[in-house]
Amino acid sequence: MTRILRDCADEVGTLPGSSSKTPEVEISCSGIYEISKLLTAAVPLEITLANVANILPTFLRMRHGAIVVLAGEGEPEITASAGVADLRQSGARHIIPRAAIDQIVTTGQPLVIRETSKSELFRVDPQPSVSSDTIPITFIGVPLKAAHKLVGTLWIDRFRDSATELRHDEDIRFLTMAANLIGQTVSFHRALNTAGPQIIQPQRKSPEGDRNDASRAARIKVDWIVGESPAVKQVLEIVSAVAMTNTTVLLRGESGTGKEFFAQAIHELSPRRKKSFVKLNCAALPEGVLESELFGHEKGAFTGAISQRAGRFELANGGTLLLDEIGEISPAFQAKLLRVLQEGELERVGGTKTLKVDIRLICATNKDLEVAVANGEFRADLYYRINVVPIVLPPLRERPGDIPRLSKVFLDRFNKENNRELAFTAPALDLISQCYFPGNVRELENCVRRTATLAHSKAIAPSDFACQNSQCLSARLWKGDDGGHGGKTIDELTRGRTIPAVSPFSTPPGGASHSEVMPVKACDPNGPACPAISPRLTERDRLIDAMEKTGWVQAKAARMLGLTPRQVGYALRRHNIEVKKF
């Protein structure tokens, strides 16, 4: 397009006998310039062609005209016409001279018919009547081409007189240049519709646009993460943004929040998705075995090493490595791991050859690493190395609206595995949505599977849930029991009896032991005296309420909330709650 504009004056040329450009030449160049501006506008192709057709009478002497874009089978796909308003009002039907267009398409050459009434093409396809049948009409048509491929035609007609008779060559040159521009535009729009936005990748986007695109990609591709709550959407936006880099990610959250699924999402949305996604639970192996699993070993390195084995770092080379429960590894092994993460180099156990690895590292933990560093249990330098982009996963109690969705997904999975056709009733979904689920998504899945297994009919009702029959043993995690009463408490719970518990609101007089405390009924999930699960309070409000009722003693608040003191301390820092001292 730029070349056509640059060569406009040379293409139109100077009239014989003239020493400078005539007004006609200047009008032609101005017309090409105006057409090019319309063709580069960011509007649909139909509107673009209509705007070009409407501007043609400004630079040409014409009566009617049209831009006809042909489909693959040769039929008109888009027709943008000019000067046909009077014809439509008069009821004329034959606007497009089809026979003439067919000849242009067949020959691929411009066509000029000085008097249409004497042409065989127009006797087959008669033109609409004008005010005077004695006035001859001239037709000029040129092909639309793009990369030597014909995509349509551009034609005009006008009254024939002595003034227009001398302008045929000039008008053909002007229409040919305009047709070249139009043909390139049509070809570009077709390529854009076929190949999609990737053909304009060199165009830089704003960071906001990239984040929005990443968020949409996450919603489309990460179908194994179920959730529409604001908390989950926020995490997915962060995941989508960080996935496009090689930055180390630290996934934090309570047990059962789905850290492994979010790690897989980071891998699948990253440029490394075609490589391996390797995962290892660091807490499941002793230190000696963990070193062999991560770094590999040579043959004969230790008893039982009968062959060489590649470690997880080697297997994940070029891809992503997930180290789950990173906070559980020993201080001695932390030093070995730090060198690999810093240098990207390792030696197999029993080997001397240094191996280079290129991995994307994702770590996950439910441990309070800050407290572990302060207590000397976790190396500070390793903490700073892995805590580059921390992502805190929301517990299930912060996304109660997702509980019905997750429950249906788990039930569908159960039905497929067991050839069942179970479904939740509306009251059943309402009931399960009010549960606390300290084990988060993992506990919810277990609850659904247990209920589906023991359901009495295909429609799961509230009475099918264990909590409605005083058989939900996991309730001990959030009810008033401090967990120190052994199997007797479980037996009493299954019978629906009271549970001996330490009252969270008072201290036993005279330093009485737990066994001397009177039995109390476990807190009512719907009552305001059970701050751990009251639906009227947010997590931050429940935390403050528990701290105030226990005199800002974290150990007592932890017993009230069914948490550990470490979890309460972590929650206080996460919510920026200042501890009051008396």
UniProtKB/TrEMBL annotation:
Signal peptide: none annotated. Residues 225-453 form the Sigma-54 factor interaction domain. Keywords: Activator, ATP-binding, DNA-binding, Nitrogen fixation, Nucleotide-binding, Transcription, Transcription regulation, Two-component regulatory system. It comes from the Bacteria. The keyword Repeat does not apply. Transmembrane segments: none annotated. PANTHER family: PTS-DEPENDENT DIHYDROXYACETONE KINASE OPERON REGULATORY PROTEIN-RELATED, TRANSCRIPTIONAL REGULATORY PROTEIN. Required for activation of most nif operons, which are directly involved in nitrogen fixation. Interacts with sigma-54. This is Nif-specific regulatory protein. It comes from Rhizobium calliandrae. The lineage of its organism: Bacteria, Pseudomonadati, Pseudomonadota, Alphaproteobacteria, Hyphomicrobiales.
